[in-house]
Amino acid sequence: MKEIILNFPKQFKVGIEAARGVYIKPKPKKICICAMGGSALPANLLSMVIEEYKLDLPLTIQRDYTLPSLCDKNTLVICISYSGNTEETISCLKEALAKRLKIVLISSNGRLEKMAKKFNLPIALIPKGYPPRMALGYQFGALIGILRNLNFLPASFEKELRDLENKLKPSKLEKEGRQLANKLRGKIPIIYASNRLKYLARIWKIKFNENTKIPAFWNYFPELNHNEMVGFTKFKAQSAKRKAQKLDFYFIILKDQEDYPRNKKRMDLTTNILKKQGVRGEIIDIKGKSFLEKIFSAIILSDWVSYYLAKTYGVDPIPVKMVEEFKKLMKAR
User: Do 126 and 163 belong together in one domain?
Assistant: First the structure.
């Protein structure tokens, strides 16, 4: 896991190159990405990129067995499954084939690779052997490469992504990640961010779930100020009961200086209110010069935190046995 984190910035170039020659004619008018779990994370990042760069790219993300009703002849269906065997994604692919929609695939092997050969579908094949959540650079690079082939993105954007190989420095984030992991020992993480960066909070939550094998929760500003924070009203008064149940929380607010000013104020005020209620936590300022550098620096930090927290619990961060056991039960029924 440590080697994967340290070498993560090299994934983008490989993913982009895997998408060479993967395109569809005529150019579609909208995109639907079908994916689950770690394979859906590049779609979430793309949605943030679309908003940040104000791109004209209608995008729908589908985490289910069926295609959304808006999928028609003008839609490109992009099926992403790192393993190539995700049953929900394969179900969507079969429906897209039946409806004769435009399709491209991103995978490392499995049934998706076999179906690509059988139905002559364009596919970006990326390196196999990684946990899907840790192959995010490969998958995102391939996705950006495909959209670049279709002229949905400027060449400058692909260059910006490639340049991250030299700009991202995972080793410089390791110490911060280890220190935060020490603070989180014995606690349940709650991760908050602005609506603009809400999927960053979601990715942090997933890293705690899969790497550290603990529950974690996420939400975003300003919405959480209208509901979730009220849930801590009696938190301080119930401290003895929480200790007896070994239930404690630690909130992490991911803050970017480019966030909307009123949301930054909300973050500061929420931090003060939660601490007065007896909830421990902190604000983390996202580092980086460009939007992509900030996003992936924050993701690398989440990898370090969840990795070192897993070590303190004596947990192997790579396998997700519960997920694999659940898949076997689904097949058995």
Answer: yes
Is there a catalytic annotation at residue 198?
A: no
Query: pLDDT tens, 183-234?
Result: 999 999 999 999 999 999 999 999 999 999 999 999 999 999 999 999 999 8
Cis peptide preceding 222, ω within 30 of 0: yes
Query: Structural domain of residue 9, as residue ranges?
Result: 2-167
Which element (helix H / strand E) includes 322? helix 321-332
CB distance 190 to 220 below 8 Å: no
Residue 54 has pLDDT above 90, yes or no: yes
Please state the pTM of the whole predicted model.
Answer: 0.95
Assigned domain for 331 exists: no
- Is the same domain home to 250 and 296? yes
Please check whether residues 248 and 102 belong to one and the same domain: no
**Taking a C-beta distance cutoff of 8 angstroms, is the pair 2, 80 a contact?**
no
Measure the CA–CA gap between 153 and 137, rounded to whole angstroms: 17
| Given the residues 25, 117, 159, 226, the one annotated as active site | 226
Q: Which of 158, 205, 210, 213 is flagged as catalytic? A: 210
- Specify whether 241 is catalytic: no
* Mean pLDDT, range 268-272, rounded to an integer: 98
Domain CATH code at residue 220: 3.40.50.10490
174 and 159 in one domain?
A: no
Residues 132-163: pLDDT tens digits? Answer: 999 999 999 999 999 999 999 988 999 999 99
Label the pairing between strands 30-34 and 75-81.
parallel
Q: Catalytic residue at 226?
A: yes
323 found inside a domain: no
Residue that is last in its domain, among 167, 198, 223: 167
Q: Position of tokens 């692919």?
A: 93
